[in-house]
Design brief:
single chain; 325 residues; alpha/beta; eight-stranded parallel β-barrel; two-stranded antiparallel sheet; Cts1-like; GH; signal
Length: 325
């Protein structure tokens, strides 16, 4: 009798294990490229970033001047463009190299500086047409003749919260005409996001890279540990469309976020990753930025667990499973 009960308990435990493993999703790692970590100068070329082998998505950052009649302008720090003697059209071969190696390249709009906003629904359409014609169509544009894989809204200095949903709607209409590209955004972890809430509610975003930094009420800290962060992640999981994947946006080094949010690698692996991997909306991790990741190799340490959740899930199960008699 005891043997039968033990066999049943083992069967139940194994069944639970396999069910849990089946719920775990493989994640992606995204990284911002283009700002040299401010002034660190440690960021390498776009080609080298893609060859590094840890990233599924690279966000070329930023198109930080556009809208309301402004002439659109890229700011890629010292890589090319207005701060250098090198035109950014030279990046087209590097972008194609990334894409041939299976790395998707998105254009990030906005950022912490620059001059950008949208003045009307019509203005949103003008900007969407500009984005399509210059970055998604294969025609010659600021990055050369490229077809990027996605458009990313990183709006944190946009002047007004108005019309970002209009821009998203116009871009989505382009997708509906048969053009294939992704739409993503990077709101702060605090709900609702000041700028992008209306856009998020459309359900059009394929990915949302939630910024769990520079926002003390919902980020990791030494005092609250992961409690604020995980509460916020839960709230976002219920808030977004079921078709949207959430990536946890994190600073790649302690100095990458002036107002905090950096999570020591082991704390992330032990306290955060096993939890978020079990949520249906889990999509991976997004790092700010490449230059900081060069310094800390944060992505090296988390990649095996972020991309293949099996090891993490087995660890969680081994620490929490019980045999019921």
């Amino acid at each position: 009798m005891t043997s039968t009960r033990m066999s049943s308990a083992i069967t139940l435990t194994l069944t639970f294990t396999f069910l849990t493993l089946s719920l775990a999703k493989k994640g992606k790692i995204a990284v911002y490229w283009g700002q040299e970590g401010g002034d660190s100068g440690s960021e390498d070329t776009l080609s080298s970033t893609c060859e590094f082998g840890n990233y599924d998505i690279v966000l070329v950052s930023f198109l930080d001047t556009f809208g309301c009649g402004r002439t659109p302008s890229l700011n890629l720090h010292t890589h090319c463009g207005i701060h250098t003697c090198t035109p950014c059209t030279t990046l087209h071969t590097q972008i194609q190299h990334c894409q041939k190696n299976g790395v998707k390249v998105f254009l990030a709009l906005g950022g912490p500086r620059g001059s950008y906003s949208l003045c009307s629904t019509g203005d949103a359409k003008v900007v969407s047409n500009y984005l399509y014609g210059n970055f998604l169509s294969g025609e010659s544009g600021p990055l050369g003749s490229v077809v990027l894989d996605g458009i990313h809204l990183h709006i944190e200095n946009g002047g007004s919260y108005l019309h970002w949903e209009d821009l998203l709607h116009e871009l989505y209409k382009i997708k509906e005409r048969g053009f294939t590209f992704y739409l993503s955004s990077a709101p702060l972890c605090f709900l609702p996001d000041r700028y992008l809430d209306r856009a998020i509610k459309t359900g059009y975003f394929d990915y949302i890279f939630i910024r769990f930094y520079n926002c003390p009420t919902c980020q990791y800290s030494s005092s609250s540990n992961a409690s604020f962060l995980l509460d916020s992640w839960n709230a976002w999981s219920f808030y977004v469309s079921p078709n949207t994947s959430l990536l946890m946006g994190l600073p790649g080094a302690p100095d990458a976020a002036l107002n905090g949010g950096y999570i020591p690698t082991q704390n992330f692996i032990n306290d955060v990753l096993p939890y978020i991997q079990q949520t249906p909306s889990y999509g991976g991790v997004a790092l700010w930025d490449r230059s900081r990741d060069v310094q800390t190799r944060f992505s090296n340490l988390i990649k095996p667990l972020v991309l293949d959740s099996t090891e993490t899930m087995w660890s969680v199960i081994s620490n929490s499973s019980c045999i019921c008699m």
